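Might I ask for a little of your time on a matter of protein folding? The record follows directly beneath this note:
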Amino acid sequence: MIDTISAGPTTVILTGSHTNFAIFLMTYPHLKGNVKHIYTMGGGVRSKNPTGCCPKDVTTACTPQQCGDIGNLFSSYSTNPYAEFNIFGDPFAAYQVFHSGIPITLVPLDATNTIPVNEEFFYAFQQHQSTFEAEYCFKSLKMARDTWSDDQFHASYFMWDSFTSGVAISGMRNDKDCLHGNDFAELEYMNITVITSNEPYGIYDGSNPLFDGHAVPKFGLKKGGVHSGHVQTGIVDSFCIIEGSRKGRCEDGYTKEISGLEAVRVRVATKAKSNVDKNSRLDREFFKSFLEVLTLRDNTGRFDITAQFPFYREVLYKPNFVNKSRGKVTIFDMDMSAGDFVSLIYLLKAPVEEIDLKVPIVCDDAVMCLRTIK
């Protein structure tokens, strides 16, 4: 990451916790100017969770779960109905990234909730597996469907990270100085911040590692400021529970729309665009691009490791970019989810003229990283 960003203008795509990139910004602030744009999947601003709702025609007693929540913490909606997983993983890191001054395009639940893996797309994907990459990605998706906890997979599983990658590629391809639209998402500017602790501020109860036990708060933070309140300590936190209510009060990780000095102007994806081809069974424009990219013969795998492993030999292949213009230099910081690996393959398959993916970083935490060079 340091070498790539030091070399010149770089775009960053974040589809996991912001820990790694926040540490980079705080450690090497002099390199911040080389980061020209950040695309990130995370948070919810005006979203309403479509999952966990009772069917309209239900005839038996039904208790809605996270239905209508801004966030998607299905295991913690009773304590925090506002956060999304990626931002909730490290709210303080996300705050540092959002408040860094670098232009950001946020793809929150507002947009990803509008592009579920519906049955039409799933079966179209099943019929488009002409490359090893497409086959791998479909099997990953099918595994998720086959192991889903209920029969609502096609209404509950969304194209979170893959869609964000598509929005990023379209932005880099078409969007000069953020003045033009995006092929896959409707966008608008909003003033938001990332909530890192809960009011009342300045009351230290042992939950906040940035303040508790420190005569001087870490990172020079302000006593009594927005970071100095109670920090949610786990999925079950008594501070977050409101007696008599099934919805909690904690907001850690909430990408909240606000006004005032804490607000940051962020470009936000609000909806996935419909397919311009009204005769197609695919209802979203991104679905078409996703299948086209994964089935490109360019940048395809060279062998089937399952069939050819007995004849395995190690060969270093270097791409030939002679007479090819290169797209924007891009770093991809992801987690270890199946969806993120699908996104990585989508980005690697995309034409190098559109995206020059230098250092995708596969990280399960801030310590262990696997680097792949394209």
About this structure: The chain has one domain: 2-54+62-196+231-371.
